[in-house]
Amino acid sequence: MNESFLTWLAQFNDAELLARLLELFNDPPFYAVDKAGRVLFWNQALEELTGFMQADLLGLPSPISCPLDYPDEVLIRSVEFQSKAGKTIQLTVRTRGLLGLNGQLAGAVAWILVERDVDAEKQAVLKPVESTQNFHGIISRSPAMEAVFQIIQNAAQTEATVLVRGESGSGKELVARAIHDLSLRRQAPFLAINCAALSANLLESELFGHVRGAFTGAIKDHPGLFQRAKGGTLFLDEVAELPLELQAKLLRVIQERNYYPVGGDRLLDVDVRLVAATHRSLREEVKSGQFREDLMYRLRVVPIFLPSLRERREDIPLLLWHFIRLHNAQNFRKIEKIDPQAMRVLLDYHWPGNIRELHNIIEYAFAVGRGSCLRLSELPPEFREAAKPEPSAQTPVIAAKNEEDAIREALKRSSGSVEAAAGMLGMSRVTFWRKRKRYGIE
Question: Are residue 364 and residue 433 in the same domain, yes or no?
Fold first, then answer.
């Protein structure tokens, strides 16, 4: 800052100058409170957002709830707030405490980063929503899926081998079916096999077939999937689980377009389009010696990365109502709405099992519940547990002669982690920070 400007500022009273600047501060929504949480300043943008006028609030407790032990650092928190008109709004509030000339807490300033209309969101999820996109059985309106759909369309017009990478339950077989349905092979069979579901011997026999007498119990010739899928598409799910000896045989099939059945001495030609899938990184499997590098490159001609459900959360309501409609059609129970609390838990869940898990949840709700509203009590136990609030503090685990020693010991045990040390003492992170400052502990 240049010296002439500083000289110019020196002629003004600091408090008056700050007050004048705040009068110009109308974006974003902003307010200031004293150490008791009473409103000192409430700008025009906040008036428009909340419906509360500054003139009516001055000297009164802030209608936006706030802690009273503000740290001397930026604190970001989420607050559910009800406007003067009765609308529920989810606010993300950025707050910082202010210290007076005596070094004691004098108040705080806060501004709103993000606001969401919770009531509008509830209305949007309470009632069935129509699917905005059903791409060959893949239901999505997520931008993350648009690139996937484009690759599927383009790859389907070729004979290239496709490798689909995605978490378990994310819809990899649906991608394979879409490729088949859009290809010139759509009139021929689409067959699938899970490479992790069978032993090496059974898997070899199922893929390549066997001749009579090849092994005990082989009382007749058995055509394998490569033969039965002739002219069509063969989907190899969990291809990373293929035993190394079968990887060599699969590589030959891809390169030579022929193979020997188990126990056979006559080559059979191959006319099959391969789509493989895995939830693992084949590159990492190659590094660990579990997968052939040459086969990886043969399978990974066109890679498709399928986003997990938590990466496309806007699809959760679509998929919920899609599966609800499927079960409604069975006329056992008809769900017409979802309780807001249940929907909130479903939207916040991390979905490790992805779409398959979501479908299972709906099937569970239809089995255990009754009536036209899907309620929280009809979800599996892990969802009901997730809805319970976390305890505000943990049980202190450190005993010391005084508070200062306890804080020092907690920091030592946690290797300097403030969050872990606060947990050991049963304090919030903010309280721990404030007390650490009070005792001058670095």
Answer: no
Tell me the whole-structure pTM to 2 decimals: 0.59
Q: State pLDDT tens for residues 280-306.
A: 999 999 999 999 999 999 999 999 999
Q: How far is CA 66 from the centre of its chain?
A: 29
pLDDT band at residue 141 under the 50/70/90 scheme: confident
Residue 41 to residue 49: CA distance in whole angstroms: 15
Distance of alpha carbon 34 from the chain centroid: 39
Query: Residue 410: pLDDT band by 50, 70, 90 thresholds?
Result: confident
At position 360, the amino acid (one-letter code) is N
- Residues 202 and 284 occupy one common structural domain: yes
Residue 393 has pLDDT above 50, yes or no: no
Among 387, 374, 384, 376, smallest CA distance to 128 is for 374
Of 78, 101, 117, the domain-final residue: 117
Q: What are phi and psi of 434, to 5 degrees?
A: -65, -45
Is 131 a domain residue?
no
Q: What is the chain's length?
A: 442
Using CA atoms, how far apart are residues 57 and 139, in angstroms rounded to an integer? 49
> Residue 254 belongs to what H/E stretch?
helix 244-256
Q: Is-contact 69 141, C-beta < 8 A?
A: no
Strand ranges in 102-232 using DSSP code E only, listed in sequence order: 105-117, 134-135, 138-139, 162-165, 190-194
> Do 150 and 283 have their domain in common?
yes
Residue 210, beta-bridge partner list:
222, 262
In the prediction, which pLDDT does 111 show?
Answer: 74
